[in-house]
Write a structure and sequence with these properties.
heterodimer, A: 268 residues, alpha+beta, Ribosomal Protein S5, domain 2, six-stranded mixed sheet, four-stranded antiparallel sheet, 4 helices, B: 308 residues, seven-stranded mixed sheet, 7 helices, 32% helix, 30% strand, elongated
Chain lengths: 268, 308
């Protein structure tokens, strides 16, 4: 029986010439669920994500890859389910639309267009980012013809959601004990209208910003594994944000290290 | 012998070319395939374009419809991009609901629109809280040979430049929208975001415009979107092996030159449509049909990127 492991790090402030690197209070709890092979809950400020990993287990023949493990990532949003009935209000008219899985990305054409892009499609894009980042970090060739599934449940979204998902995923994979080539962490940066870089923004800060970028940084060489951006920005701003994220990643990796050390040290 | 080597050890086969700074199809590492653009290919759509990058073929049709504006933004219109990857274009895709790649591509296009404000949504509004335009941008891949995102974005941009919407006015008495099909106007395309896709081989070698085969063998993919002012609209790297800032900078520089090349191509094609008067244009159409293209419109072949 493994012990639950819980760690929190206070807000860190650091002034370095141009920009202030401040992260919201972040913390993690590992091995908190009993059914999955590994689990974690990662909290960044009010943003919170719960992750569970199952595997290596048997894989469906159709999804089998002969030389490595098949990784599946599912991100469950806090509200709304992928294939459920959604009640939408448009003006005085209340419409009930059966959201069929057959037309995942198609818009519902009933009277007026209701929403531009299905929220499920957004989750898909996030899932792709998390999956490909995990695939690069995992040594999946050590488990050929098997399946790994990672389920991320959004508990609360208050900005920097993708980075929180990445951090929760990394902690859960570590908890599972899967062989990995390197660790990774997610950092979100926002550029406000005055051109200042805000790290780990809240939902309000993201809304007010001109651009939001999320990077996954690897622990081996501190390079960019994943990048997802919104809004437009100059090349110089991008390079600055990458540099800031690399510095912020140090904090996360130090946290990973401390939390694992505490967990496995004899004097608890 | 070479064919056998390619089938048995595809990765080694590619590596042996990359070692010599070239690729199996004869391109250099920083070279795009020939890009061909044809606009107005679908006569029944309000705007359309067909793009070929090497063998990759993508067609985009835009249909404008009238609707009521969204309640939370009453002076906005809608743009609804959708990317379809039918089983016709590659054996990778199965019939049925859109797969992950199709959904990710749709989301990518929507994100680029959101980030770069290609068309101001306010301009699609006809009368506040009453009526606005919905632009259904359906992009379909006809032949999948890698670099889907670049082809989709060029097709969409060219199709948007081709869109002509009729004038709509609100009748004060009946409160209904009246369409005047004789008076048509073009959309005001404010910015021109163009993407360049890169594939990473063996964690270090970066190649541009990968084919489907190269995509499958690569360890990471990346797409950089820039506009005509060299502002970045998107840096999309959905995971994979990591890249250093220097390599990223090289990719951005390549994307900037690519933007110029494609911008020139789109302008040439649009100009060639404008300069041909209706009679001439149809003549041109006939000639074109005889020569190579099965569809109408005007097409220009060109833009073969040089080395990065």
């Amino acid at each position: 029986m493994r012990q639950r492991n819980c760690d929190f790090v206070g807000t860190t402030m650091e002034v370095d010439g141009q920009s202030t690197l401040s992260l919201r209070e972040f913390g993690c709890e590992q091995n908190l669920l009993s059914r999955p092979d590994g689990s974690s809950s990662f909290v960044q400020g009010d943003t919170s994500v719960l992750a569970g990993v199952y595997g290596p287990a048997e894989v469906k023949v159709s999804k089998e890859i002969y030389d490595r493990a098949t990784l599946e990532v599912v991100i469950q949003p806090k509200v709304g389910l992928p294939d459920c009935i959604k009640i939408l209000q448009t003006g005085s008219l209340v419409m009930q639309c059966q959201h069929l899985p057959q037309d995942g990305s198609k818009m519902l054409k009933m009277g007026s267009p209701i929403w531009n892009m299905d929220s499920r499609v957004k989750e898909r894009a996030r899932e792709q980012c998390v999956r490909e980042t995990c695939e690069a970090a995992l040594l999946s060739t050590l488990h050929p013809r098997s399946s790994l599934s990672l389920v991320l449940q959004v508990v609360h979204d208050d900005g920097s959601l993708l980075s929180c998902c990445l951090n929760a995923a990394c902690m859960a994979l570590m908890d599972t004990g899967l062989p990995m080539g390197c660790l990774f962490c997610g950092v979100t940066c926002a550029i406000d209208p005055e051109g200042h870089i805000v790290t780990d923004p809240t939902a309000q800060q993201e809304k007010n910003s001109r651009a939001v970028m999320t990077f996954a940084i690897d622990s081996a060489q501190r390079r960019v594994m994943m990048s997802s951006t919104k809004g437009s920005f100059s090349v110089n701003e991008l390079q600055q944000c990458i540099a800031v994220s690399q510095r912020a990643s140090e904090k996360f990796f130090q946290f990973y290290r401390d939390s694992v050390r505490r967990r496995y040290s004899k004097t608890l | 012998m070479a064919a056998g080597f390619k089938t048995a050890e595809p990765l080694e086969y590619h590596r042996s070319f990359l070692k010599e700074n070239c690729r199996p199809d004869g391109r250099e590492l920083g070279e795009f395939r020939t890009t061909t653009l044809n606009i107005g290919s679908i006569s029944t759509a309000d705007g359309s374009a067909l793009v070929k990058i090497g063998n990759s073929t993508v067609i985009c049709g835009i249909k404008g419809e009238l609707a009521t504006p969204p309640t939370d933004a009453p002076n906005n219109g809608y743009i609804v991009p959708n990317v379809d990857l039918p089983p016709l274009c590659s054996s990778k895709f199965r019939p049925g609901p859109p797969g992950e790649q199709a959904q990710a591509a749709s989301q990518f296009i929507a994100d680029v629109f959101e980030s770069s404000e290609v068309i101001l949504k306010e301009e699609l509004c006809i009368e506040k809280e009453k009526v606005c335009w919905v632009l259904y941008c359906d992009i379909m891949c006809l032949d999948y040979d890698g670099n889907l995102l670049d082809a989709c974005l060029i097709a969409l941009l060219a199709a948007l430049r081709n869109v002509q919407l009729p004038e709509v006015s609100i009748n004060k008495e009946t409160d209904l929208a009246e369409v005047n099909p004789d008076r048509k106007r073009h959309l005001n395309v404010a910015r021109h975001p163009i993407s360049s896709s890169f594939a990473v081989f063996d964690d270090s070698i970066v190649i541009v415009d990968p084919t489907a085969e190269e995509e499958a063998l690569s360890t990471a993919m990346m797409t950089v979107v820039t506009d005509e002012d060299d502002t970045l609209c998107m840096l999309h790297k959905p995971g994979g092996t990591s890249l250093s800032s220097e390599k990223l900078q090289d990719c951005i520089n390549r994307a900037v030159t690519r933007n110029r090349e494609v911008g020139k191509l789109i302008n040439t094609v649009i100009q060639s449509v404008k300069t041909h008067k209706p009679l001439m244009f149809s003549l041109y159409k006939v000639m074109k049909t005889k020569m190579e293209e099965p569809s109408g419109g005007s097409s220009v072949k060109g833009v073969k990127g040089d080395t990065a």
